[in-house]
Amino acid sequence: MAMLEISDMQLLNSLVKNVDMVEDAQPCNLYREVLILQHHTDIVRALIKVDDHRCVSAGDDCTAALWDIEDGRKLNVFSGHKLPINCILLLKPEPGSYDDILLITGASDKHIKVWNIETGQCLEDITEHNSSVKCLASLPAFDIFISGGEKLCAWSRKGKQLHQVENPGKADIQFLLPIKENRFVAACEESLYVYTVEYCGDSCEIKFFKHLFRQHREAIGSLINVPDGSFASGSLDGLIVLWSSHTLSAIRQFNQIKEEKEFRGIDNHYPFSIQHMISPEKGCIFAAVGNSIYVFDITKDQGRIIAKKQDAHMSKIKHMDFLYHGLYLATCSEDGAIKLWGRAPAEKNDKDYFMNPLETFTGLSDKIRKLKKSETVEPCLLGECLGHSGAVQLFVDFGEEGFVSCGGDGLLILWKDGVLQNLKRSQFIGEMTGATQSSYTCSTLTGLSRPIFTGDDDQATLRTEESPSD
Amino acid sequence: MKRAEKKKLGGGYAFNAMFGGYADVAAYYHPNEEDESIEEHIAPDLLPIYEKPDPWNLRSPIEKDFVLLAEFSELEGPRPVLTIPYGTGGQFDKNNFAVKIMSVDYHNISNNTFTVSDDTQVMILENREGVYAYVHHFTLYDIHARGFVRPFCMAYVTADENKMLSAYEDMLNEFSKVSKCFSYANKLLFLKDIKHHIKNLEHTKECLQKLEGEPPKPNESDSTDENDVLSELTITQVESMIAEAKHIEKVIMPLLTDKKMELKLKQAEDRFFMSRSMDFEEEHEREEEIVQEEINTEEKKEDVNCIKETPRRKASVYSLYSDYKPCRLFDETREYQPQILSSAFFRKKFDKLLRNLHELCPWGSHNALRRLRCIQRYFSRDLATLQIEKEEGTLIDPAAGLLTIGRCVTLNFMQHSGRLADGGYGMSLPSNNLLRRRLSEDTLGSFNSSESFYSIQDDRESVHSGVSSAAEVAFIYANSSHCDEHSPRNRYSISEADDYFVINYKEGDVYEPPKARERYLTGSSAGTSSERSFTTATDISFGTDVDQDLYTTRRSFYDRAISMDSNCTSDDLISSSPTDLESNISRKVAVISAADHIFSLNSSSIGHGILKVFQEYRCSPEILATLLTGRPLVVLGGAKDEKAVTAIVTALWLFLPGHTIPNHAVVPCLSKPKQIKMVDLAHFKLLGMCRPERRTSSPLVPSSVRNYVSVLDIERKMLTAPAYKGHIIKDIYKQRKIFKTEDTYIPFVHCELLELATRAFIYYHCFCQKEPSSFQDNDFAHPLERANVYNMKSTEFCDTRLSVHPGDVPVIEYLSEIVKMQQYDEWARCSYSDTLPTSVKLDLRECKVFKA
Q1: In B653-727, which residue ranges form alpha helices assigned H by DSSP?
Q2: Which of A187, A253, A262, B74 has its CA 20 to 30 A from that of A63?
Q3: Which residues in chain A are contacts of B415 at CB distance < 8 A?
Q4: Structural domains of chain B, with CATH
Q5: Which domain holds residue A185?
């Protein structure tokens, strides 16, 4: 249960030397206030956004917690698991119903628990999974969820086991990704398996559909949906494969490193491993490749790199996402830092938002980018959010409300726009105190110049006269 | 006034020639002097040296104010019982004074029928001797005394006439409370005695009636005392005695209505007996030891001063808590066995020593004496300090609006506004249960939940400043320590080095209290101790049913000061364990008035050594700017620099704004430091650290927080901090050359800081509260633009309206931000009854390295 901690020495020893240092004052970094949410006592591995002002965190301390991210209040704690929670999932109520949102937690203790998020009450404790629960996914179309581990199980909303399938792979299932209404992909080591769900009446059946042709040579580290009806898988060896959700065939491959020696790197460091990918819009994939950020143009066969930041972090990037309505691309890493990337400040002469995240990120509109075909943009480091004393696992964006990050130090840090917070407080106080400002100024200023020894003596004398005496 | 003139002219002997002779001169200077003696016509060098007071330079025999407790003894007449503090007033004739003050009031108590007399107050102004006193007479009742009364009086004796005049009302108030402590306990005892007495009388009457029926036995060989008594009494006599006693009972009964007080006394008693019954448990032994020790010191200190007592009496005092069976006021279980009246009773021989004060007021006397000590400590300060403090006392409310710098009250941003305080938003309501609950959870839970992994706080050797809110502000006064140095539990004074920072919790202490938590959570039924621990300073707990209106209208420093002290000290008596006491303290924030700070400057005061620091570090403006902009400052020293680090932290504390402990804590020196973590930034603003002897791989200030703190390395004489470009702090720094000593410089600093605070005040009211509206409507396309515009506007406001240099804007912004945060926290606390995490400002300004 020892928590990870990256000491500075380790960082110095790391192989990467030429990592960008951020400008001292960080003029472009708006996150100037933090709230530290303390609850977890071990690594926080899962973080999920509930709605615009709440999130759930869960971790190795076997508990999950619900937070209000406006003021950092802890709203609920979900405790009951005996071993670390590996994955969490939210089941939103059916549209039109007034049910509360359900939280599903899957843990190493082979239990799946269903909680009411509002009350903190544990509604179901599912034990039939019989193996460590590694991942969860919901299939909203059927109002069921599936869990993966040694096997695959389908569960009703109420926690009733609907079906169970053995996993053809040797290892546990690590990722589950619903790709179409009734179809989902399970990633197990370097293999991908597609399943279909057949749901009629009360019975539900998971059927093995296809074993996707073996492309990856190492374990898959990231599995995402891409907006234009495809999905992508990235693996430890650096390979990213784009698959069609319809035909289930590989469309394209990027970042292929042929030599095993090369992708393994020194000491099996896997310098090109894909830890995380996002596809904020059609046609591009942002990938965390080792310590670097790559943006691939997936419309072209060869996978042109639109933007690239080599050695963005000192250690591997664990998670990346856009923050503040796309203002920043943030990456977090094992080195404990969260870095904010974007256009260089000099180029920011027009203050409008660009149409899409990619444009914002590169500072070039789609048209211009297409004209400058061969050019690879290098994003500029706009800010560095340092605070975690261990690896930063992941973060969740809440737009203007800031973002929440969680890490190996058991902390959740809520990063806030300092000026906005300041304004909010001022406004709040202003509303409460009303519009009597002018009078304060006068009274107190005169009050200050008031002589200290006034009239008291006279009064005291009067009092003395009244008092009984001899 | 007249005396001042005399003084002025006193030295003018050289010019006496023009008046023909000394006699003429004397006649000229004081024609109305009554007792002119021959000596005054003689040149001073011819006069014999003896202790006749010198009228030219009238010196009071009183060097230091003290409290004198005197009684009218049946055997000896008026006599002093004790002085507080012990041994004061050495030059002063206490016996004589006791006679004087007791004779003043004695005529009041000469009624034929029993009545309960009220306390009387007198002010004695002995101009000639330079002795001024407030005298408070009160009567205790004793079944064994003549007329059942034991006249006592307390006198506050001072040499300062003005103090007496101006503080009369406050003294009256405070002494009344003390008197109440004494007399309530006393009345309870008296009532009990009377009841027993009635039973005795009735029993005697029965015996007499029996005796009458029987024929007298002439040859009674064993003539006992009983028979003696019976033979001397007649039934009618006994009946009249019964009537008298019943009358007394009737008079006393309705006066005993203060359930709160009774409960407290009962708790004291229960606690005592409980601790005795569980004698073998080590814990309680220790506890009792403390009680014992306390009593002993008390007795030694004060009772030694009593007129010599017989050994028996002495023993009984000492044994009050050990082998002697202390009377149980509240034990209703045992039925009283009536006895025949003893001869001593009705014969009234008055050769027997009467009960002493402790015996007369079981359980109440200790509290009363503590209170007296507090009163003495409070009033013995300089008059100017008292008055300034009284003026500034109004600044505490509402607590959320209070800005302090260096723990000294500077300004209240919300004074006179009242809207935040008046409820409506549920703010700063001292009796708000939610608030109380929150605080308790806070103290017990949150701090400890932070494990050492992400904080330097270690469970055992950690610094633990406790948690408190802006609502729990109480004044203390700095000179309290030297008066109370004997007290084993003196933890309230900031002037003791280990007081201000931390209360070291042992893990067990803190984790133990599910019990304590329960107590705090279960509201009023759990007992008054919970109430007391959360009362804001305005509700005085012990001995107050003095009308509350008076308190709410006249909230002054000393109310708080005294109540704070007596709250805590009465806890001593009652709280179930020392742990409770500690956690109670941690909930209170101690702020002092600048006047008191200046008055009681000593080597451990905040700010001591500031000139030395300035002399040593040329980069002092940067250091001060760091503190005044809310950037945490770490003072880093070598392994053996603990003293130096502590000294610097103490000195720099003078410039640290804010007082709410979780956010603005000061840690003088951590000898076994760990890496600073993000969590710590939320709590500490000024932190001293010593590098461990053996270098470890991880630095004390790791990269995760390095950007947000300034580091003053005293070993390498280096400061890493943002550059300071403003003027205000530089001015404060430069002016040090004009002031040669800290005694004069620190008042100057207070003035400058007040000036700074007033600017922040205007900024707060005129900018902060109005500006958001302009940002509300204007939806900025880009959040960065919003930030830029806001900063620009802020700087412009400071420049044009406050004539503050842009370099000083962060200071103004931070000072107003402190108040905003307090208000917001207060609101959140009341509306959620929950702890909100503290927000940490990340100061990303560019840092430079300065060579000291």
Answers
A1: 661-664, 678-681, 703-706
A2: A187
A3: 440, 444, 447
A4: 55-380 (no CATH), 610-736 (3.40.50)
A5: 27-343+353-432
Q: Which two tokens stand for residue B785?
A: 């633009």
Rounded to whole angstroms, the Cα distance separating B497 from B569 reads 20
- Beta-carbon count within 10 A of A368 CB: 12
Q: At which residue do the structure tokens 């931070």 appear?
A: B814
Cα–Cα distances in angstroms (integers) from residue A470 to residues A187, B96, B120, B162, B169, in the given order: 100, 16, 11, 20, 18
Between chain A and chain B, how many beta carbons pairs sit less than 8 Å apart? 230
- CA of B409, closest CA in chain A: separation in Å? 13
Distance from CA of B778 to the nearest CA of A (A): 13
Output the six-digit token pair for A105: 């937690």
Q: Render B631-661 in DSSP notation, one character per residue.
A: --EEEEE-TT-HHHHHHHHHHHGGG-B---H
- How far B538 CA lies from chain A's nearest CA (Å)? 22
Q: Mutating which of B123, B161, B683, B704 best tests the A interface, going by the most A Cβ atoms within 10 A?
A: B704
Q: Which of A76, A351, A404, A429 to mutate to test the interface with B (most CBs of B within 10 A)?
A: A429
Return the number of other C-beta atoms located less than 10 Å from residue A91's C-beta: 20
Residue B728 confidence (pLDDT) above 80: yes
Task: Tell whether the model's pLDDT for residue A345 goes beyond 70.
Answer: no
Q: How far apart are CA B758 and CA B361, in angstroms?
A: 51
CA distances from B149 to B72, B113, B360 (A): 10, 12, 11
Test the A interface: residue of B417, B452, B789, B835 with most A CBs within 10 Å: B417
First vs last C-alpha separation in chain B? 53
Closest by CA to B628, choosing from B815, B782, B800, is B815
- CA atoms in the 13 A half-sphere facing the CB of B517: 13
Mean pLDDT of A103-119: 92
Can you tell me which residue has the tokens 């938002």? A353
φ/ψ (deg, to 5) at A77: -125, 135
3-state secondary structure of B593: coil
Q: What is the pLDDT of residues B148-174, one digit of tens each?
A: 888 898 999 888 888 888 888 888 988
pLDDT tens for each residue of B208-219: 888 777 665 555
Strand partners, B358: none
Q: SS3 for B128?
A: coil
B342-364 burial, b if ≥16 CB within 10 A, otherwise e?
eeebeeeeeeeebbbbbbbbbbb
Q: Report the DSSP pairing between strands B589-591 and B473-475.
A: parallel
Residue A453 belongs to some domain of the structure: no
Which residue does chain B place closest to A11, by CA atoms?
B703
Cβ neighbors of A389 (< 8 A, separation 6 or more) are A5, A6, A336, A407, A409, B453, B454, B675, B677, B678, B702, B704
- First-to-last C-alpha distance (Å) of chain A: 80
Nearest CA in chain A to B119: A468
B668 vs B645: CA distance, rounded Å = 7
b/e for B837-848, b at 16 or more Cβ within 10 A?
bbbbbbbbbebe
The domain tally of chain A equals 1
Percent composition of chain B: helix, strand, coil (DSSP 3-state, to 5): 55, 10, 35
Say if CB B167 and CB A457 are below 8 A apart: no
In a domain, A48, yes or no: yes
Rounded Cα distance, B240 and B232, in Å: 15
On whether residue A135 sits in a domain, the answer given is: yes
B387-423 burial code (b ≥16 CB/10 A, e <16)? bbbbbbbbbbbbbbbbbbbbbbbbbbbbbebeebbee
Residue A37 forms part of a structural domain: yes
Residues in B touching A447 (Cβ below 8 Å): 415
CATH of the domain at A262: 2.130.10.10
User: What is the average per-residue pLDDT within B342-364?
Assistant: 71
